[in-house]
Amino acid sequence: MASEFELIARYLTPAASGARAGVPLGVGDDCALLAPQPGRHLAVSVDTSVADVHFPADAPAEAIGHRALAVSLSDLAAMGAEPRWCLMALALGDDDETWLANFAHGFHSLCQASGTALVGGDVTRGELAIGVTVMGEVIPGEALTRSGARDGDVLAVTGCLGGGAGGLALWQRGERDLDHPLLERYLKPQPRLAAGLALRNLAHAAIDISDGLLADLEHLLEASGVGARLEPEALPLAEGLVEALGEEAAYRAALCGGDDYELLVSLPGERLDEACRRLAEQGLTLTPIGTVSAEPGVRGVDIGGAHGWQHFHGGES
Amino acid sequence: MASEFELIARYLTPAASGARAGVPLGVGDDCALLAPQPGRHLAVSVDTSVADVHFPADAPAEAIGHRALAVSLSDLAAMGAEPRWCLMALALGDDDETWLANFAHGFHSLCQASGTALVGGDVTRGELAIGVTVMGEVIPGEALTRSGARDGDVLAVTGCLGGGAGGLALWQRGERDLDHPLLERYLKPQPRLAAGLALRNLAHAAIDISDGLLADLEHLLEASGVGARLEPEALPLAEGLVEALGEEAAYRAALCGGDDYELLVSLPGERLDEACRRLAEQGLTLTPIGTVSAEPGVRGVDIGGAHGWQHFHGGES
């Protein structure tokens, strides 16, 4: 196996590194040096994706690279932060350089598309796992948090739900057509960065849907000290989901399946039209799915059934 | 096993979290929000410590927690950066809560001692591994880098060498007296943060010694485009090292053993006294061990023998 230094030099330094805005010193020293914009807060988060826990080990390497960055960027999206930099901690079991080149291509492509500079890395031997730290910037006071939802707010989600769980189910059944919309949703989720930026100063609260709508809704409600009533029939189901899973399982996937990486927001009803308009400019829908209430807990869904799915899904989420 | 959320809440949120300087929003949302000091550059680095690769899995949990943070902080020390924040990505195989409590105690104690706030975490299942991202601050232009060494500079090291490799050798022989100075050096290395800060505006270049003096010296020389002559007899050997390993192996450990986490600096001869004086105020020695030359390569040591040890040591470094 090539040494850590060789691997870092070959695959973790982006092709077009050079001098980049906000990076006085990139990969290659003990630390990278970054120049934050004056007067901003930094938003930082870390997520680790482990083979056969968070993604199938035999998924395409390019998708694994894309996905590992996407799930971390999704946390920046949920805060309305602008992505700037990332660091990758990669654990690798073998030295398949074709795999590594494809993995790096997926990672760097999303770096480029999202305006995120890879500024540092670390390679160790072990079970395949990718830890990605992301750093973004936000104007103080404008960050979206989980704790601002208020009684009477509308709850709304970007895009569609259930595609992550639906895609995983198809993959487990042996579907390998990467153009299938559900596989695309599962393997190459799109972090809703532009949506998060557009929702600043409109939404009271936001969270990204990584653990499933109900689970993440509960986090948001708990942080805000409120409850909610959902309208399950309003859930925007992913394309092809009912065909793939049947109607009941499709709704369960939308409620409880993980890996959707859409945003769930709480916003005043009178701002819903403006929010929908801003997201429509990005080609993205925003669908109202319920309302916030002062009374704690979630009403309108059969939580028992939901938790059953959560449990079944536990090994993969 | 407790859920990720419960584990994070119980062990990865420091006891004395509350509102801390520079942390408008800590653990518990999609991202933490940080307020960097105006006019500073950020120094960032990530290091992953894997059980039975970077440390013995049966080492004391408190030492594992300390060590995982120490090796990352050592990168900030090498840049002369002031530590501010860190994020931990923890992979855990089982749910031994006593172990986790001791691990967290080791980690949080060093957080407190170094002025580093833990602002985010991620827990996954897998082989025990700890990825720590550290963020520090440095005045633009004052960061120590690897690339500034000049012909005629003195090379010097903080503290003593070989203790990391010597401690590992003792551990492998079954020594378990944690008060043994070599075990202490190996299991609970002290990142030279104050030394790095004191050497700003004195040293031309710096690197931390994590892979062994010779290996890290080569990184520094390569980045600076220079060579060096070492004086092996000048190497400051760790206390008890010759007694534990014998003279020849002791010198090899000092030259090629990893895990010392001392600083290697290159500085003008006329600044050596001032540098020694500043470090003496911290109770730390700075020992000249050679000189920088224009001619590439390292002279004065038997590299062949050195590489032999490096190879033997490869599995543990």
Automatic annotation (TrEMBL), chains A, B:
<dbReference type="InterPro" id="IPR010918">
    <property type="entry name" value="PurM-like_C_dom"/>
</dbReference>
<keyword id="KW-0808">Transferase</keyword>
<dbReference type="GO" id="GO:0009030">
    <property type="term" value="F:thiamine-phosphate kinase activity"/>
</dbReference>
<dbReference type="GO" id="GO:0009228">
    <property type="term" value="P:thiamine biosynthetic process"/>
</dbReference>
<dbReference type="Pfam" id="PF00586">
    <property type="entry name" value="AIRS"/>
</dbReference>
<keyword id="KW-0418">Kinase</keyword>
<feature type="binding site">
    <location>
        <position position="208"/>
    </location>
    <ligand>
        <name>Mg(2+) 3</name>
    </ligand>
</feature>
<keyword id="KW-0547">Nucleotide-binding</keyword>
<dbReference type="InterPro" id="IPR036676">
    <property type="entry name" value="PurM-like_C_sf"/>
</dbReference>
<feature type="domain" description="PurM-like C-terminal">
    <location>
        <begin position="150"/>
        <end position="300"/>
    </location>
</feature>
<feature type="binding site">
    <location>
        <position position="259"/>
    </location>
    <ligand>
        <name>substrate</name>
    </ligand>
</feature>
<dbReference type="GO" id="GO:0009229">
    <property type="term" value="P:thiamine diphosphate biosynthetic process"/>
</dbReference>
<feature type="binding site">
    <location>
        <position position="75"/>
    </location>
    <ligand>
        <name>Mg(2+) 4</name>
    </ligand>
</feature>
<dbReference type="InterPro" id="IPR006283">
    <property type="entry name" value="ThiL-like"/>
</dbReference>
<dbReference type="Pfam" id="PF02769">
    <property type="entry name" value="AIRS_C"/>
</dbReference>
<feature type="binding site">
    <location>
        <position position="122"/>
    </location>
    <ligand>
        <name>Mg(2+) 1</name>
    </ligand>
</feature>
<feature type="domain" description="PurM-like N-terminal">
    <location>
        <begin position="28"/>
        <end position="138"/>
    </location>
</feature>
<dbReference type="GO" id="GO:0005524">
    <property type="term" value="F:ATP binding"/>
</dbReference>
<feature type="binding site">
    <location>
        <position position="47"/>
    </location>
    <ligand>
        <name>Mg(2+) 1</name>
    </ligand>
</feature>
<feature type="binding site">
    <location>
        <position position="75"/>
    </location>
    <ligand>
        <name>Mg(2+) 2</name>
    </ligand>
</feature>
<keyword id="KW-0479">Metal-binding</keyword>
<dbReference type="InterPro" id="IPR036921">
    <property type="entry name" value="PurM-like_N_sf"/>
</dbReference>
<feature type="binding site">
    <location>
        <position position="210"/>
    </location>
    <ligand>
        <name>ATP</name>
    </ligand>
</feature>
<feature type="binding site">
    <location>
        <position position="309"/>
    </location>
    <ligand>
        <name>substrate</name>
    </ligand>
</feature>
<keyword id="KW-0784">Thiamine biosynthesis</keyword>
<feature type="binding site">
    <location>
        <position position="54"/>
    </location>
    <ligand>
        <name>substrate</name>
    </ligand>
</feature>
<keyword id="KW-0460">Magnesium</keyword>
<feature type="binding site">
    <location>
        <position position="30"/>
    </location>
    <ligand>
        <name>Mg(2+) 4</name>
    </ligand>
</feature>
<dbReference type="InterPro" id="IPR016188">
    <property type="entry name" value="PurM-like_N"/>
</dbReference>
<feature type="binding site">
    <location>
        <position position="75"/>
    </location>
    <ligand>
        <name>Mg(2+) 3</name>
    </ligand>
</feature>
<protein>
    <recommendedName>
        <fullName>Thiamine-monophosphate kinase</fullName>
        <ecNumber>2.7.4.16</ecNumber>
    </recommendedName>
</protein>
<feature type="binding site">
    <location>
        <position position="211"/>
    </location>
    <ligand>
        <name>Mg(2+) 5</name>
    </ligand>
</feature>
<keyword id="KW-0067">ATP-binding</keyword>
<comment type="function">
    <text>Catalyzes the ATP-dependent phosphorylation of thiamine-monophosphate (TMP) to form thiamine-pyrophosphate (TPP), the active form of vitamin B1.</text>
</comment>
<comment type="pathway">
    <text>Cofactor biosynthesis; thiamine diphosphate biosynthesis; thiamine diphosphate from thiamine phosphate: step 1/1.</text>
</comment>
<feature type="binding site">
    <location>
        <position position="45"/>
    </location>
    <ligand>
        <name>Mg(2+) 4</name>
    </ligand>
</feature>
<dbReference type="GO" id="GO:0000287">
    <property type="term" value="F:magnesium ion binding"/>
</dbReference>
<feature type="binding site">
    <location>
        <position position="47"/>
    </location>
    <ligand>
        <name>Mg(2+) 2</name>
    </ligand>
</feature>
<feature type="binding site">
    <location>
        <begin position="121"/>
        <end position="122"/>
    </location>
    <ligand>
        <name>ATP</name>
    </ligand>
</feature>
<feature type="binding site">
    <location>
        <position position="146"/>
    </location>
    <ligand>
        <name>ATP</name>
    </ligand>
</feature>
<comment type="similarity">
    <text>Belongs to the thiamine-monophosphate kinase family.</text>
</comment>
<feature type="binding site">
    <location>
        <position position="30"/>
    </location>
    <ligand>
        <name>Mg(2+) 3</name>
    </ligand>
</feature>
